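PROTOCOL LOG
Step 1. Enter all chains and additional molecules of the complex.
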Amino acid sequence: MRLIVSSLLAFCLFAAGHAGASDKVHVEFWTMSLKPKFTSYFKALVTEYETSHPNVELEWVDVPWDAMQTKLTASIVAGSAPALVQLNVPWAYDYALYGALRPIDDLLGADRANYTDGAIADLTFNGRIYGFPHYNSVNVMAYNTALFKAAGITHIPTTRDEQLAIAKQIKARTGQYGFSPALGKIAGVFLEEGLPLVEHGKAVFNSPAHIALITKLADAYKAGGLLKDKLFSEDNYPASIDAYKSGRMAMLEAPPSALIRVRDDAKNIYAVTDVAPVPIGANGIAAGGWLFLFAMPKGTTGNVAIEAARFAKYLTDDDNQLAFAELAGAFPTTKKAVADPRFQRLRADGGAYEKAMAIGAMRMNVVRTLYVAGVPGFERLNKRLQDAVEAAIIGRRDVKSALDEAVAYWNSKLAH
Amino acid sequence: MVASELDARAAEPAASPQSRVRSMRAETREAVRAWLFLAPALLLLGMFTFWPVLWGSFLAFTEYNFLTPPKWVGLANFEDLFADPVFFISMKNSLLYLLIVPAIQLGAIALAVLVNNGLPGIRVFRAAFYLPVVTSVSVVGIMWGWMYNEQGLINAVLQWLHVINEPIGWLSDDRLALFSVMLVTLWRGLGWYMVLYLAALQSIPADVDEAAVLDGANRWQRFWRVTIPMIMPTILLCTVLSTLSAVKVLEEVLIMTKGGPVSSTYTGLYYAYDQGIRAFNFPRALAASLVVSVFCIALAWLNFKFIRPRHR
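Step 2. Run joint prediction.
Step 3. Record the structure below.
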């Protein structure tokens, strides 16, 4: 009899516990390539949130960035998408275009005012907001003062033209490279300079201004002012930082976090490094903006959507953004966090990295994620543009004819 | 067969209906048993090979983006494909890549002949030549990427020897990049084919060679008249395998050049990969894959037609 009673009691306790667990709202969220560096940050954050919100059960999944689109698309098709997923702006735009994301205007509500205007503008597609802004990035220009001195350069470049001229001078006088512009993302280079790719449904990147920019780049390339390694690669960052660390390149355009690597790996170069803002293009936008956000895939509804939105706001609030930004060497996207003294004020004992963070924070009001939106089949068109520019810069083709041909191709496709 | 035997057979009574039924049942049981043994493998092949091939082939004729149902568009994806100059560059490069087939075969045969002797320490050489085969392609790609770098080993040695004044952009010069990548494929493949040829050489009976010696054949004649004909089936196998590998090359390009500079290292399969995985244009990627498959089949057929061993 005692055995039966104790068994019944155990069953009731188990059933009660089980019922309690199933009452919890399960919120699965995916981040992009944040393990293992941020494992303890996210684990602590999850534990803290679950303690303060006992009705919510969080599941954190970190997905490598190069597998993210495949996994996310497959999960949306299979109806098993997470409640929140970390994306960059161009990917979010693409998913929103296909109706694969849920707009979050209703869930964001008055909290919209907490985020910077630039971040909200980056996430507004067709008048709807498609994500909770997380962290952002902006480029600074680190430069090797020893190479500048050896080349007789006293003026820090503030425009792209000046920077290209200095690159040639550095090559001529020191034999080292000037810098490595992100030519693997030529659309972004045009946009930074305020040069549009498409106007009124037609490609316009063969205008005299576009031709002049590519011609200047080609001249600098011919003079040996641009680093050749991976110059046209989609990601030229590793090659650039290696060249800068080894003293083979005078200027490094990169997010401030790049200076941590210089500091750790090449102390002699770090000692002669100073930092300046990157030259700002004609449209007044600082280069290197790359906003990450938490988007909500379609099919996230009811309580899950409400709890996921609450968690996303927590994840991206002032304190958590500040903590994450400090860990990652990135920039927060809430107004209060950006204004925090630890970003805006330069410490007296600060080195190049601290100066870079201060300069970056000051630029947050002019940073935007630049990408080409609303062009169907952009990948293929961009490939044609990329090939044309590459052939022109390395001297295989005349700049004008290469751009004319690419424009003709774009227009033949855009007309359909 | 003599006439009396035929007569005796004709005189045998025809099998009774019962025995025919019994025999058919036994055959059926045997067939069922065979299918049961084959079933697990067929199931796996069906799920992970046949079905994806069929479904992928179907999708090549549709407009499909994963998020909306496929829509039949006939040959539109192929028309689109053949209007893309990068696809032509890719297929041209795949054809150029075939240049490594004779090089790899000759090199592998030469290596196999060299290591097919009883010299002390020869196993070390065999292992050394085979090492690139078992090394991860990512490691190989990164290592050669460093060596090809402007500041890399190759340029450093050539400059030290005063062969060149300025470093050469092995991977950044569009006229050289494809050949630089091909060299890596050649280096990776030599050991594998060397082992196959070594096995073939070691399976040649010693008495055949001895007979040729007795007939007065010199070393060269023995190699051409005895060794090569005896290893012809292996030559066919290796040529088909290396032809298909050359057409299907992907990893080296992906790791070392990503198709650049100016699309000069795109290959057929890299184009398909790029369209599918990077640009998310699955129908065009599948259409390109189908074209590459047809290309592979045609090349395999040509190999069989021209290198078929004479003795069968």
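Step 4. Note key features.
The longest strand of chain A covers residues 25-32.
The radius of gyration of chain A is 25 Å.
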